[in-house]
Amino acid sequence: MxxxxxxxxxxxxxxxxxxxxxxxxxxxxPAVAAAEYERVLNGAFDTGSADPWWSGAGVTNxxxxxxxxxxxxxxxANPWDALIGQNGVPFESGQSYTFSFDAxxxxxxxxxxxxxxxxxxYRGIASQTFTLSPAKQRFTFTFTSTLDFPDAGNGxxxxxxxxxxxxxxxxxxNVSLVGGVKPPGGVNPNPTRKVQVDLxxxxxxxxxxxTLVSTATTPQQxxxxxxxxxxxxxxxxxxxxADATSGDSVHLIDFSSYDTAGTGYTLSVGEDSSFPFDISAxxxxxxxxxxxxxxxxxRSGTPIEARxxxxxxxxPAGHVNVAPNQGDNNVPCRADLACGYTLDVRGGWYDAGDxxxxxxxxxxATWQLLNAxxxxxxxxxxSAFADGTMNIPEKANxxxxxxxxxxxxxxxxxxxxxxxxxxxxxxxxxxxxxxPTRPELDDQPRRLSATSTAATLNLxxxxxQASRLWQGIDATYSATLLTAARKAYAAAKANPAKLADxxxxxxxxxxxxNTVSDEFYWAAAELYATTGDTAYRTDVxxxxxxxxxxxxxxxxxxGGTAPLGDITLALAPNGLPAADVAAIKSxxxxxxxxxxxxxxxxxxxxxxxxxxxxxxWGSNSAVLNNAQVLALAHDFTGAAKYRDGVFEALHYxxxxxxxxxxxxAGYGEQAxxxxxxxxxxxxxxxxxxxxxxxxxxxGPNSALQDPVAQRLLAGCPQQKCWVDDIGAYSLNEVAxxxxxxxAWVSGWAAEKSGTSVPASDCQxxxxxxxxxxxxxAQVKITNTGTAAWPAWKLAFALPGTQRVTSGWSATWSQxxxxxxxxxxxxxxxxxxxKSVYIGFNASGAGTDPTAFTVNGRTCKTG
Length: 862
Prior knowledge:
Blueprint: E1 54-55, E2 59-64, E3 67-72, E4 83-87, E5 96-105, E6 109-117, E7 124-132, E8 137-144, E9 155-160, E10 168-179, E11 195-196, E12 201-202, E13 209-213, E14 221-225, E15 231-236, E16 238-243, E17 248-254, E18 262-269, E19 272-273, E20 277-279, H1 282-297, H2 306-309, E21 331-332, E22 342-343, E23 357-358, H3 359-379, H4 401-415, E24 423-424, E25 426-429, E26 446-448, E27 451-452, H5 453-470, H6 475-494, H7 517-531, H8 534-542, H9 562-571, H10 578-599, H11 619-637, H12 640-653, H13 707-712, H14 729-732, H15 736-753, E28 762-771, E29 774-783, E30 793-797, E31 803-808, E32 811-815, E33 818-822, E34 835-843, E35 852-854, E36 857-858, E37 860-861
Parallel strand pairs: 12-20, 28-37
Antiparallel strand pairs: 1-4, 2-3, 3-10, 4-9, 5-8, 5-10, 6-7, 6-9, 11-13, 13-17, 14-15, 14-18, 16-17, 18-19, 18-20, 21-22, 23-25, 24-27, 25-26, 28-29, 29-34, 30-33, 30-35, 31-34, 32-33, 35-36
Helix pairs in contact: 1-15, 3-4, 3-5, 3-15, 4-5, 5-6, 5-7, 6-7, 7-8, 7-9, 9-10, 10-11, 11-12, 11-15, 12-15
Domain CBM2: 755-862
Pfam family, one: CelD_N
Active site: 724, 733
């Protein structure tokens, strides 16, 4: 899979010490000899990165010559007024630790090394002051911890560098904290079940599958119980064996034959039971709006009002030049850029858990919301997004609410356009903001980063798309958008290789992207679909990405946007040859088939390719972006298998995964709570809220790119590399382009869930005569619908070791346990109310199949 580059948030997420010194503890002799457990991460700085070391106000960290060198501004009153440190350091009360490091300073000065608590009340464990000189020296001291922060809690080590009148540079290296008796890593703090289900709901009329964790090699009996504990259905599991991605040995449970709506169901196998879940379309329909509400929560430059979000999530406007904010109304470029102007960039959405606003992230997120609307208008049900359907301030202005929300970011993107037509890559704090910090309390100065080709093409693409959708709603605004889009595209063509600086990661993620041919294709496609201009058509058809050449199982993301252009060309009327549009649609079906084939082999089915990079930062967004590909394949072909694949993806993010966890806040008994976020920071400050319902966690990341992950999850199987912890920013962050994927998919799924349970148009009866290691089965297929079938294809899974050896009245095939029977020429048409009879012989041991589909549709049994 193409790697999704990390968001490079390291130092932002780590809280500096309070403005008081850590109290030194007595250096008593330890009762237990220190074990060789290293507690500090990246103490040697061999990778060239400072991650996860942070710096406080007035301090700038850089790794130079294999050392972490801090440039310290003089004039501070106290040692703790200038800091560098690392959070998430585990300590065990009563255990001995040895803190050691190499250090030197340009000008001799005292420096205090300290250990303590990173959050209120900021209790100290130990500290000791050393005098640094220009010559590198080794320093060390030993102490016994008086506080207990096991695993990756609220422990911290820091260096206090202030209290001097002069500027200085202080370098540290080979920083080590050794001790304790509990080895870090190897823990999974998420309580799990052995029966894994969608913790929210299964939609009536659609397949219902779960996963059993078991090393048994034979089928096990499962029981479905209602909320009263009464058994309502039973069946046999299908052993699948070892699942490398999760590390589990698994069985498949298929209870699709039970279709009675209700709440509080549980699945059990022996003594093991699942978390409760519903059979209902209501949670999916609720998620459509909760996932969209995320964007109102993330608005910058406006108060978030209690009447729309409730009291706990209400807050004043952030970054509007009201103290202590320095505001977004007159933002200059970074000092080293000297662009000679300032921009008013108020508004837009905060990108993620920090206070930055990024054009390349905002671009794909806005596009995805607008595309959800455009798809609904052209081939779906746009009434779900009509004025008044969302709980936002604009809900009675006569404009579809989804367009209103998207406009909040589209207007910000327009403001990021420089006078020459290029777009600035991002705007954020000059230094990383402490966690937690409510937006209106952020006192950091705000700075524009350089313009970039990628950002400019994002602006061109989204402005052209938005112009198309606003043409019949607000012609003046539509024209403004199109003018900006044309200007941006021309500017990008004049500056085709102005790439974002990969080292621009202070105060905000770099979002560097070395390939922009995909953005050129996407922007040209949007402009062509909106204007029909031949110049844009030429750029589209000449692109190496044309006709979905860039679409694969890797999907799309903010740095790989060519498939966005394909989607627009497949949905929006244009003058391209019909054969080319058909080729694009066919490519979506081809890739969707690849996803389904891979999902059929997974213990926890999800449209995700981990074959190259494992699970990456934001893996859940990749799952959902690929679910969009499946959804569009269904739109383009009508094949039910693609629809079912979309719901399998939702089941995965909502709890049918090896951690028994819903990655969507508010959905399921064990759902994500502690998102990495500066306001939804209840884990750090109980007066602040948890993540609101509908917020999507980034999900498993096997690269373990933050201290919490590195300390807790060393050696984790890929799908288990996740923890619900506010400090686990590489796993549990939220982001606008992740929630836009959830909003698109949940909106599509809600549309497909219908207002009532769709009547099944097929029924399958199955009987078998069995003998030792063999059977002969007779199958009756009945068309219970009102229209004749011109042809039919039966599909089911044959449990155990059973293999079809011969069959009659159909063309039989088997792959693994999956069996299909296709109609013959003489029995292909089955009229309404009519039946067809087929059969087969099989060898091996096993039980009867429990679920059947005909032409991709789940059938009743009996």
